[in-house]
Specification:
The complex is a heterodimer of chains A (251) and B (76). Chain A is 40% helix and 16% strand. Chain A contains eight helices and seven strands; from the N terminus they run βαβαβαβαβαβαααβ. In chain A, strands 3-2-1-4-5-6-7 form a seven-stranded parallel sheet, sandwiched between helices. With 76 residues, chain B is mainly alpha-helical. Chain B is globular, with a radius of gyration of 11 Å. Classes of the chains: A alpha/beta (251), B mainly alpha (76).
Chain lengths: 251, 76
């Protein structure tokens, strides 16, 4: 059957695979035929993700529990990784703070996890030639900071904007090896990142009205966009930020 | 922690509302200046000053400043 979206024969690394968009992406990639390498800082949720992956065709998936903000842990993981065709840098955190409450500790933590960890992981994998020619890198960025800003969202916005800039620079440089680099920019997604937030139910109900599709995304809907960018169906797309927002940024 | 100091910190998150308006019985959601940003600032202030994390729904459920004070005290 003709299917340019297939990931058969590809090995894909997904970070932050213990939950939310990362888990949904790992599962979607496995269903599309990829062999997965999943990582997360939380061994328990990561093992659960591993158990949910499709293994038909006697594929065996790998998992690495690692704190990717730690240089030694990052080097160790990179040294043990197989050759990759796809990379999904998805690990991310958020904390809502108005600007007047900014502080070094929170800012450094968000920047380390959301921006610097994916940058340094990309740098090492590229330098060590671990990404096959024709490969694809996808960052989970956000419309936040790139297309819009929200009250108290400054740290998240700044970190995601940094990642957006890195994505476009990497797309330019990595074209030399025919490696494509893109991002998906979701609006709010039904994950723990939203469910554990400071926003009240009433605020969420009001916020939903600002979405033309009147709902937040399911993690699987972001995962499917990532699958597209990993697959050969997007072979001429690089340096692109794919907005997946239910129409949120239209108005 | 004392209610007087708490009210002062609470009032500091507002720009235009006169300090005399703020008492333990003040129904803060009804103040003209109340906004989502003030709410987020209150949550951040409580985290900063009292090392207590409160959620948006908890702040929403509180009616008076004293309710918030008691909530913070119960989480200390």
């Amino acid at each position: 059957m003709y299917n340019p979206f297939t990931l058969e024969g590809k090995t894909v690394l997904v970070t932050g695979a213990g939950g939310g968009i990362g888990r949904a992406t790992a599962i979607a990639c496995s269903k599309m035929g990829a062999t997965l390498v999943v990582t997360d800082i939380n061994a328990e949720t990561l093992a659960e993700t591993l158990s949910l992956l499709e293994t038909e065709g006697s594929r065996s998936h790998l998992m690495f529990t690692a704190d990717l903000t730690n240089d030694d842990a990052l080097d160790k993981m990179v040294a043990e990784l197989p050759q990759l065709d796809g990379i999904v840098c998805n690990a991310g955190i958020s904390k809502v703070l108005p600007i007047q409450f900014l502080n070094t500790e929170d800012m450094n933590r968000i920047m380390a996890i959301n921006a610097f960890a994916p940058m340094y992981m990309t740098q090492r994998l590229y330098k060590k030639k671990r990404i096959n020619k024709g490969g694809s890198i996808v960052y989970t960025v956000s419309i936040s900071g790139v297309s819009m800003v929200s009250m108290g969202g400054v740290m998240y916005a700044v970190s995601k904007n940094a990642l957006d800039a890195f994505m476009r620079n990497a797309a330019l440089e990595f074209a030399a090896r025919n490696i494509r680099v893109n991002s998906v920019n979701p609006s709010r997604v039904k994950t723990g990142l939203i469910q554990n937030s400071v926003y009240s139910e009433e605020e969420v109900a009001k916020d939903l009205q600002t979405y033309p599709l009147k709902r937040y995304a399911e993690p699987e809907e972001i995962a499917n966009s990532i699958v597209f960018l990993l697959s050969d169906a997007s072979s001429y797309i690089t340096g692109h930020a794919l907005i997946v927002d239910g129409g949120k940024t239209l108005t | 922690m004392e209610i007087k100091e708490f009210i002062q910190n609470f009032a500091d998150q507002f720009e235009d509302t006169d300090a005399s308006v703020f008492t333990p019985e003040t129904v803060f959601h009804d103040l003209d200046e109340w906004s989502s940003l003030v709410g987020l600032s209150l949550i951040a202030m409580i985290d900063d000053e009292y090392d207590v994390t409160i959620k948006g729904d908890e702040l929403r459920a509180a009616k008076t400043i004293n309710d918030v004070f008691e909530l913070v005290k119960s989480k200390k």
